[in-house]
Each structure stands twice: as structure tokens, then as C-alpha cells.
Write a structure and sequence with these properties.
Blueprint (H helix, E strand, L loop, with lengths): L3 E4 L2 E3 L5 E7 L1 H6 L1 E7 L6 E6 L6 E3 L7 E6 L4 E6 L8 E8 L14 E2 L3 E5 L1
Parallel strand pairs: 2-11
Antiparallel strand pairs: 1-3, 3-8, 4-5, 4-9, 5-6, 7-8, 9-10, 9-11
Length: 124
């Protein structure tokens, strides 16, 4: 069954904001650090941001630092990615992912345990 469900993608003009949501099962949210990856056509999967299981620690790729904010809501079992000052190069399929660890997951995608289906972000 589906355990990570992304939403909030869409089309936006450069400079605008967009907020992605990732609803997780209670099991995943309670046991995993979580994060976001993205993949643009013809490019490799890129780690974007991560948050610790307790939500107290975060980390960002240099390409989005200062523009994107990852957060979590434990009452809703949901992780968010607030994206501000979007650029055309941010256009990609964005994936929510979870890793079976307490800390902020920043490792290679092959070590993550759960993945969502993705949500498309297009910046023009």
C-alpha cells in the first residue's frame, strides 16, 4: 500500500513560491528521517533537503539553501517543502522519501527505504 503521498506541485512563474506536502503513514513518520529529492529530464536524481525524525534538524543542498524550507507536522504525519524564489532550473519531478534513521538523511538515494510517486514542479 502507498505510504508516502506527495501533493502541491504545479506550474509557477520564476520568483514565485510553491509548497509541497508529503503525507506519510504513522509508522514511517514515527520511525524515519525524511526528505525530498528531485529529478529533471535527462538529469540524475538530486537530493534537495532532509529533516530529522523529531523535526529539530534540517539540511539543504547548496542549490536551494536560503530559498527552500523543509518542515514537519507531527500531528498530521506530514512533511512540507516550502519553495520560495523559484527558478526555472528548479523544474523537476519532486519525490518525498524516508530513511530508517533518526538523524537528517543526506546519503545516496539507494539507502533510502520509502519513496513517494512524485509531484511535478514547473517554473517558467
Amino acid at each position: 500500500h502507498v505510504q508516502l503521498v506527495e501533493s502541491g506541485g504545479g506550474s509557477v512563474q520564476a520568483g514565485g513560491p510553491l509548497k509541497l506536502s508529503c503525507a506519510a503513514s504513522r509508522f514511517i513518520f514515527g520511525s524515519c528521517g525524511m526528505g525530498w529529492y528531485r529529478q529533471a529530464p535527462g538529469k540524475e536524481l538530486e537530493w534537495v533537503a532532509g529533516i530529522s525524525r523529531d523535526g529539530d534538524s534540517t539540511s539543504y543542498a547548496d542549490s536551494v539553501k536560503g530559498r527552500f524550507t523543509i518542515s514537519s507536522d507531527h500531528a498530521k504525519n506530514t512533511v512540507y517543502l516550502q519553495m520560495d524564489n523559484l527558478k526555472p532550473e528548479d523544474s523537476a519531478m519532486y519525490y518525498c522519501a524516508a530513511a530508517d534513521q533518526a538523524g537528517v538523511p543526506t546519503m545516496s538515494s539507494i539507502f533510502w527505504n520509502y519513496w513517494g510517486q512524485g509531484t511535478q514542479v514547473t517554473v517558467s
